[in-house]
Amino acid sequence: MKPTLLVLAAGMGSRYGALKQMDGVGPCNEAILDYSIYDAKGAGFGKIVFVIRQDFAENFKKINNQERFGLPVEYVFQSVDKVPEGYNAVQTRQKPWGTAHAVLMAKDVIKEPFAVINADDFYGRQAYEVMSAYLQTCANKHGAYSMVAYRLKNTLSDFGTVSRGICDQTSDGYLQTITERTSIGKTPSGAAFTDKEGNTHPLDLQTLVSMNFFGFTTDFFDYCEQGFKEFLANEAATDSKAEYFIPLIVNNLIANKQAEVKVLSSNAVWFGVTYKEDKPEVVNKIKELINKGFYPENLWN
């Protein structure tokens, strides 16, 4: 059974200043997600599911569709009002509920092991290969999760802070904990994150971080749904800006021994566009990969 690729593309792009999930970085105006799907298709993924917002759905579907990619494509929608029956959406909230809520939107259309990626992150071909190979061993399993980790030093921006999941793993390569840090920036001595009280804490540049490239079996949707109800009753009830992140669920499942998360080894290189100023470097890196023969000049010709 071929795994599915779930692409989170409903972000607001507030720091970028545009819909970066559709912004061209390739020579024929390809977006980063085009290269992700090209790599995923080559690695054996059999279907693409996009999580998008209704307000740009028409334009998104014109560009990102089955005809373009040569794979089955489905679309699901993330919005603030998509909450379980009996729960009220926070009226003042404007941004989506977060990555775990985005994953939950795909519950009714994914019936096989699947990988989750961000639309605006370039993960590298080998990352898709190791993830696909692992997911294809998980068809009849529960709680057999996985993730591709990267070194913090390779995931920072020169133009501002970033959000990353800080990872600890066991000696045999399974995730122990993952802690979401939302304000990580470069410092003269390396890197540091700022907590909610404004205090800074240094981070080793070799630290393993999650770039939201996870692999899941379909039982994750049930855990996700139950966790969202708890989130709405607790964190969201007191903080209108609280976000429901994938690491929150993953940590709880690991702690309760309901799932194991294999940290997959990969030499793939990550890059992405958090800020508009990041784009020229991404364009140059894509050009380098084309010149080295990793990608054709016109990706979908």
Q: What would you say this structure looks like, in words?
A:
- With 301 residues, the chain is of the alpha/beta class.
- It has one domain (4-291): Spore Coat Polysaccharide Biosynthesis Protein SpsA, Chain A.
- It has helices spanning 32-43, 57-63, 66-69, 99-104, 125-135, 219-233, 235-238, 246-255, 279-291, and strands spanning 4-8, 47-52, 73-77, 114-118, 121-122, 144-151, 162-169, 175-187, 190-194, 200-203, 208-216, 260-264, 271-272.
- Strands 1, 2, 3, 4, 6, 7, 8, 9, 10, 11 and 12 form an eleven-stranded mixed sheet that branches.
- β9 and β10 (200-203) form a beta hairpin.
- The two termini are 28 Å apart.
- Residues 14-18 have low confidence and may be disordered.
Give a quick set of tags describing it.
single chain; 301 residues; alpha/beta; Spore Coat Polysaccharide Biosynthesis Protein SpsA, Chain A; eleven-stranded mixed beta sheet; two-stranded antiparallel ribbon; 9 helices; 13 strands
Tell me the structural class.
alpha/beta
Return the string of H and E elements: EHEHHEHEEHEEEEEEHHHEEH
Query: How many H/I helices?
Result: 9
CATH class: Alpha Beta
CATH architecture: Alpha-Beta Complex
Give the full name of the CATH homologous superfamily: Spore Coat Polysaccharide Biosynthesis Protein SpsA, Chain A
Rg, rounded, reads 18 Å
Q: Which blocks of ≥5 consecutive residues have pLDDT under 50? A: 14-18
CATH topology: Spore Coat Polysaccharide Biosynthesis Protein SpsA, Chain A
Fraction of helical residues: 25-40%
Number of domains: 1
Task: Please outline the helices and strands.
Elements: E1 4-8, H1 32-43, E2 47-52, H2 57-63, H3 66-69, E3 73-77, H4 99-104, E4 114-118, E5 121-122, H5 125-135, E6 144-151, E7 162-169, E8 175-187, E9 190-194, E10 200-203, E11 208-216, H6 219-233, H7 235-238, H8 246-255, E12 260-264, E13 271-272, H9 279-291
Parallel strand pairs: 1-2, 1-4, 2-3, 6-12
Antiparallel strand pairs: 4-11, 5-13, 6-11, 7-8, 7-11, 8-9, 9-10
Helix pairs in contact: 1-5
